Amino acid sequence: MFGRRGDRPAPLAVTVQEGTGATLLLLHGLTGSAASWMRVAPLLGGYRLIIPDLLGFGRSPKPDSPYDLAAHCAALSPLIAETRPVAVVGHSMGGVIALGLLQRHANLAAGVLVNPALYESRQQALAAMDGAPWLQRMSLRSPRLAHLMCDASCMLRPLLQPLAPLFARDLPAPVARASLDHTWASYSRTLEHVVLGGLARPLLDEIGGLVTIIHGEHDRTIPLPMMEFWASLVRRLVVIDGDHEALLLRPEAVAREVIEAISS
Q1: Taking the model in full, what pTM does it have?
Q2: Is 216 helix (H, G, I), strand (E, B) or coil?
Q3: Is CATH 3.40.50.1820 the right assignment for the domain spanning 14-263?
């Protein structure tokens, strides 16, 4: 059981892209994996990249964890101690975890949040979910049905994963397959505690000066006006031509702005 006092976090699955520059830690969003960065990572060739599958997702362990911010940060802490990244870059839900790591680790000098899931309150997040992916909407409106569907997907994962690219033709095949690689516990608890937890205000009040936000102008999951609300609390807000899937659809723009944020 993960999360009891004295337990050591289970090691995460990690993809490493070697480089001669500083080390960056890249964090994916909800239902994502290291594959989510497959189009951005090659464009960050000057850096050494550490790209984990977060606890409960992708190839990483899926224990009976609370899957709150503390649990995700605890799972990442040994990796940070080992690889010593200078900055953390998080997409969507991974942006909230990036803030938690910035708060906890003084060696992280900067954070870059790409289309981050920053909401002032649970109520604000729920109001914005009309544009979110269908599983997130169903999880909030019909949690029992979503639970049943997620459990069925888990049981049928070996059969469904090869077919996933056929039903998500707008996603690269590795990303589509990885979107099924989670459990109901890891998905629903992370959604509830990290995305809907109202964590943005206290975190940004404390470490917002270290943060750059890169946001897609056409993001429907976290609409741009919500992100503009946080602009005064962060170092810089950059708006690009893209939506919530900017990592995959606008990788050149994301990579350019990440490099600019880390270099400045």
Answers
A1: 0.88
A2: strand
A3: yes
